Amino acid sequence: MTNIFPSMSLEDIFNENGLVAQNLSSFEFRSQQLGMAKAVERTIESRRHLLAEAGTGVGKSLAYLVPFIMWAKESDRKVVISTYTKTLQEQLVNKDLPFLKSILGIDFKFALCLGGQNYICLRRFNHGYKHDLFESEKELDEINRIRVWIERTQSGLCSDLDFEPKNITWTKICRETDLCLGRKCLYKNSCFYNRARLTQNQADILVVNHHLFFANLASGGRVLPAFEGVVFDEAHTLEDVATAYLGVEINNFKIKYFLDSIYNPQSRKGYLRRIRKLNKEKADKIEKALGHVRVTSQMFFSELVSKLGGDTKVQRIREKDFIFNHIKESMTELLWLLDNILDGTQDLEDRIQIKSFVVRGRDINRGLDIILKQALDETVDIDSNIDEARSPNGVYWVEILARPRRSKYSLYAAPVDISGEFKSMILDNIKPVVFTSATLSTNGNFDFIKKSLGVEDADEVLLNSPFDYSYQALVYTPNSMPDPTVDFKSYQEEVISEIKRIIEIMQGRTFVLFTNYRMLDVTNDVLKEELGDFNILKQGDAPRYKLLERFKKKDKSVLLGTSTFWQGVDVPGRALECVIITKLPFAVPDEPIIEAKMELIRDEGRNPFIEYQIPQAIIMLRQGFGRLIRRNSDIGMVAILDPRIKTRFYGRSFIGALPECQHTSNLDDVEEFFLAQHKR
Question: What is the pTM of this model?
């Protein structure tokens, strides 16, 4: 890379007396940070790909930002930084990028990119009033509060509201791609989304999340400005996000919302009232067709319950056309009527709204066909039969969530192996691509993630954490715990007893991480009953950020969480000094996607437990461990209460994947460890 800033090298920026050190009082030189920056620079120069594991505390975001900022300015290219968590996005946009802009002397621009649905649409908001689309008193109250907010907001973002509107309210007034009039909109000059896109078009660095990245991919690049380089931070989550975006979901709520948005017979609200003014005769036919779709939808989901039962469950579907598609014919008739009304409609807003209904209805029909015909890899024509189509790379399942008032029935299709598509859509078209995380490797190599994402040719760098874990961290693994696979009841009872003992020693300041909600709920009930003077917080009782605020602010706090709290959570200092891992985080083997992946590996003559379940669980364990030590002054203990880490052959792989720490099986040592550390 020809440096257009010849007087400034990476050493000048990251060395002991470099620019960062001169401008950051808490800076400590880390050779790993400089090493990563150089690896990224080499990857940019060679236009290759890079897998970079950088342990906690390396400062990897600055390490990849600096060379990419230089490259973007030198070559007039845009770079996307894609993350999984909102926490990291906020760190990049509010801290790291402004800091680098202030010290580098490079006039670069950056922008946070959010999906259009995060923005208020002024046209839809005003026309919602005009067409009387808002239903309940509560919805109208929220709309009135939003109307006042519109007068003062600078961003138009839902997240800037001082309350959280109900989804049904926001979806009627937010910006939707298929409802946007673009340059023909009367509000184009005051459009919040247009302003944001202008900022993005002028930016050198675009900060997005993985979901928006794949939404852009699915849209053919219409969501983000064109870019030439990508950094996937928190890259260990990429496979799951990509799988979701390449899949299909249809549920009864989605169908009902679609029909109600045209016309809700209970509230007598919806766009049909507008259509009736355009053509009463056709509107009457549409209303009748809507009723027919409702009836066939009820028939479809009633048959689903009759076939599978109505209890809460997740069930794999291995048979094509396991139930009859009652919805297809009636939905097709409705869409024909909607399409037909366009012939006599001149108003641009009416045309785009009706076209949107047609497109969304077709998506429902197409999704149902894909799932029922098991044809994820096929091009599905909703007007033809695909009886012979079957996808070898698809997995199909149903989830039933039984509830007293209205149960939810969801049908899914997802690819089993996304590596080929990831390679062809991303790796073959974008260079350079940098994958980074504190947890990318297993057993000292990148084989697992390379196979998962189709990475065949890439540079690799493994950088350990600069933290002194042998001094800062203690790993506690008790002896004689019952094996959860042999006697789960005894295991659960003993785990809860251990958790109580640890919490009392720690006086709170503890995360307790679970692999399932059922055990979390049981433990929560016991702790609240028997440890009443502690602040017991449970995932699901409030949004994650609120739980974290309460955890940090109140003494003697204990937070119980599942996968949400295993990763992307940063609580430095004395507020969190203990992480309890109740069970090794093996993926549930009968969860449809996991089961299908294991079947695929087995069909290829390989061992799915060794090649898939163990590496995946090791990465998740390392993520959970990573919640503990977030800076040089932190100390803490990780308690692993699953005896298999000692008793099974694979236990050494889990222990070996963790940093070199002190180890004990005696709780007395835990007390001594903290006494000794806090005296220093």
Answer: 0.91
